[in-house]
Structure formats: structure tokens, C-alpha cells
Design a protein that fits this description.
With 200 residues, the chain is mainly α. The protein has helices spanning 29-36, 71-74, 87-102, 108-122, 131-144, 146-152, 182-198; strands at residues 45-47, 62-63, 78-80, 159-160. 40% of the residues lie in helices and 5% in strands. It is flat.
Length: 200
């Protein structure tokens, strides 16, 4: 068979099509993905950081239950907010920008406008506006459910971080729910009943 450099340029083809008679390997992921279905990422969630390669070795670190933890925010960088890439600002400001760009004069208003636009482009707006509200709701909601969570996970029980996603890893957004626990239901019921008798 002639080498590639010996062929005329007209005979070389770039294609991903399988050769005649060859078979593609079986797609073993298709039934699993079809069974899992689609899970849409909620609107407004972003991860505002750059990917960096890090060497990591698993540790035997353990901790007591983290009742108020927000793993998606604290470990993985997901937050609630509007997109920070400036498309909404450009959509709102573009009529004025286009109008001023077409004017032949060099007025102070035009100079101020384009200087302001330049500053906004150099310093993109901080977009984590909704996250403090979401975190506050998460914290105060967990206070109300604290007896349940203490029943579901004993305050003296130790948890290991092995198997958890590493901080900053590019993993998909996952919802974290409080586990179902009969003991937690009993603790919550006892706390609500006790508060009902304690508060006149």
C-alpha cells in the first residue's frame, strides 16, 4: 500500500465514516441514559470560576453532620443570579449606543456614554444578587426543620468525605434533599408539641 505522502492530493479524504464492512462498537450507554431521562438545570444557575487542574489525594477527613450546608454553592460553585455576560445590558443599551454611534458630533454626552460602556465591559456586573436571599431562606428553613434533621442524622455521628465531589470539580448540578427518617419525624413531632405547650 502506498504511503500517504506518495498519494496525489486529490485522493486524500477526511471523513469519520466507517470503512466498508466495519462495525461500530455497541452503544452501552444508550439504555442507561434513556432510563435516566432528562433533568433540566434550573434557570439562572451559574458557576463563575475557571477550571484549573489540581492533583488530589483522598483523605480520611471526617466531620459531624452539616445541617446548614449548601453543597452546590459551597463545594461546587453553583449560585442563583442573572447571567453576567452582559447580553441583557447590551440588549437594553444598544438602541442608545447605536444612536450615539451614528451621530457625527463629539458631544460630552456621547463621550460619557461610551466611557461608561467601556467601564462596564472591563468590569462585568456582579451577578450573585439572588443567592443571599436563597441562602437566607435555606438557613431559616433548616432552623425550623432542625429537630427532624437531628433525628435523621445524630449530632454525634461522624461522616467521611470519601465519595463526595471534590470542591470545584466540573460535576452537573444535583439536588440534595433531607433524607426520609421515621426517627426524624418523631423528633420533629416532639419538638413541635413541646413548643406548643411551652409557648402560651
Amino acid at each position: 500500500m502506498p504511503l500517504l505522502e506518495d498519494r496525489p492530493i486529490g485522493q486524500l479524504r477526511a471523513t469519520v465514516k466507517l470503512p466498508e464492512g466495519a462495525q461500530a462498537p455497541e452503544n452501552t450507554a444508550r439504555p442507561h441514559l434513556q432510563a435516566a431521562g432528562l433533568e433540566w438545570q434550573p434557570t439562572g444557575l451559574g458557576r463563575g470560576f475557571c477550571l484549573q487542574p489540581v492533583d488530589w489525594e483522598a483523605t480520611a477527613l471526617r466531620h459531624l453532620p452539616l445541617y446548614f450546608e449548601e453543597p452546590n454553592l459551597e463545594r461546587l460553585g453553583y449560585y442563583y443570579g442573572y447571567p453576567c455576560d452582559g447580553r441583557y445590558r447590551r440588549w437594553i443599551c444598544s438602541p442608545v449606543t447605536n444612536y450615539l454611534a451614528c451621530k457625527p458630533d463629539d458631544s460630552w454626552l456621547k463621550q460619557k456614554w461610551f466611557a461608561w460602556q467601556y467601564k462596564l465591559d472591563c468590569n462585568p456586573p456582579h451577578n450573585q444578587l439572588i443567592q443571599p436571599v436563597v441562602s437566607a431562606c435555606h438557613f431559616y428553613g433548616r432552623i425550623a426543620a432542625l429537630p427532624y434533621m437531628m433525628g435523621a442524622a445524630c449530632p454525634r455521628e461522624e461522616f467521611y468525605v470519601l465519595g463526595e465531589d471534590r470542591p470545584g470539580s466540573p460535576v452537573p448540578y444535583r439536588k440534595h434533599y433531607i433524607p426520609l427518617s421515621l426517627k426524624g419525624i418523631l423528633y420533629q413531632g416532639a419538638a413541635v408539641t413541646g413548643l406548643g405547650y411551652a409557648i402560651p
